[in-house]
Design goal:
alpha/beta, Rossmann fold, six-stranded mixed β-sheet, three-stranded antiparallel β-sheet, 40% helix, flat
Length: 346
């Protein structure tokens, strides 16, 4: 396993495109200065010992040295000892609605983007807890099995979109059923199910499935994405909105938040209902309730010893700087240089 002790230094890599941009415009400025002196070919003929290619090589060598220095400062480390460690946490499974209605813009920028923001905030507040992600529309799919790898959870969250499920619709009940299979098979009270949706359930009896889950000790929270006034569902083609979805009669479909059903689900599931209003999604109470849940002990594999590898990058920096120092900007005939070294005099 590779990790960085001071990962914040890696932000220095963002300066590389800027340095290339500055060098590029320096070359343009230099060429213009040469042209302003006189006729281009004449001026260049007076600069026959200057090598254009070596100047570029020297720049990219220094750029490579800078990159290596950034990695050295970030202090890369490789895990050398993998051990099983004991942790205390709860199991949290997220049911994320990715139906087309989640593209509605009645809350800005749209329901789907607000969902991603809410999930990222939830992940940031987890500590030693396992997280799993299930996406659903007309069908449900497990995207991330229960894990403590929060980086993977963030990556999955960033890719959430209606394209993940071909069968459209909103089948919350079947998603709850899949979630019950995702949790570990024990009787502990350390399981929380968080359903993030606009609540427009068209396929099954979600409340009945929620009761079954609650009987197994699963706490169910719901987050309602959308407004009571609702909004149309945009259609995108090649990344651009081309119109709104319409019914068979040609009328624009309006999708509204079904807060009543989501409140019923959270009520039978002994959890919280959170309403995503226009300004924000207030997750404070939900996060507090998860933190207060009974913790379960579990074992997980973790690297406990790491070897520093920053020395490799420092050596690269030293080697490049020394190598660059001995590269002249002028054109050099290797044969003449060798003969002079052997004592030949012209």
């Amino acid at each position: 396993m590779l990790k960085f002790a001071y990962i914040e230094y890696l932000y220095g890599l963002f300066a590389i495109p800027l340095l290339i941009f500055i060098y590029y415009y320096y070359r343009i400025w230099r060429r213009r200065k040469i042209n302003s002196i006189g006729e281009k070919n004449l001026v260049l003929s007076l600069m026959t010992d200057t090598s254009k290619s070596k100047s570029i090589i020297k720049f990219f060598l220094l750029l490579l040295a800078y990159t290596s220095l950034i990695f050295a400062l970030a202090r890369p480390q490789i895990g050398t000892k993998l051990e099983e460690v004991k942790r205390l946490g709860v199991e949290v499974v997220l049911l994320v609605d990715v139906s087309n209605s989640m593209l509605s813009e009645d809350i800005k920028p749209n329901r789907m983007e607000r969902t991603k923001q809410a999930i990222m905030r939830l992940i940031d507040n987890l500590e030693d807890d396992k997280i799993g992600i299930i996406v659903f529309a007309g069908k449900s799919y497990l995207q991330l099995p229960l894990t403590t790898d929060y980086s993977a959870a963030r990556l999955i969250t960033s890719t959430l979109s209606p394209d993940l499920v071909n069968t459209q619709g909103t089948a919350i009940g079947s998603a709850i059923d899949l979630a019950m299979e995702t949790f570990s098979n024990d009787d502990t009270k350390s399981k929380a199910l968080i359903i993030i949706t606009d609540g427009e359930n068209h396929e099954d009896d979600a409340v009945a499935e929620a009761k079954i889950a609650a009987e197994k000790g699963i706490i169910i929270h719901t987050i309602g994405m959308g407004s009571s006034s609702g909004g149309p569902i945009p259609i995108y083609e090649n990344g651009k909105m081309s119109g709104y979805r319409k019914d068979n009669q040609g009328n624009v479909i309006m999708t509204k938040l079904n807060s009543q059903m989501l409140q019923e689900i959270s009520s039978v599931g002994n959890g919280e209902f959170v309403f995503a209003d226009i300004a924000d999604v207030n997750l404070t109470d939900l996060i507090t309730n998860i933190a207060k849940m009974e913790k379960q002990e579990y074992g997980t594999k973790k690297f406990t010893e790491f070897d520093d590898k920053f020395q490799i990058f420092l050596l690269i920096v030293v080697f490049i700087i020394l190598f660059e120092f001995f590269i002249s900007d002028k054109k050099i005939n290797p044969l003449i240089t060798l003969l002079k070294f052997l004592g030949w005099k012209s």
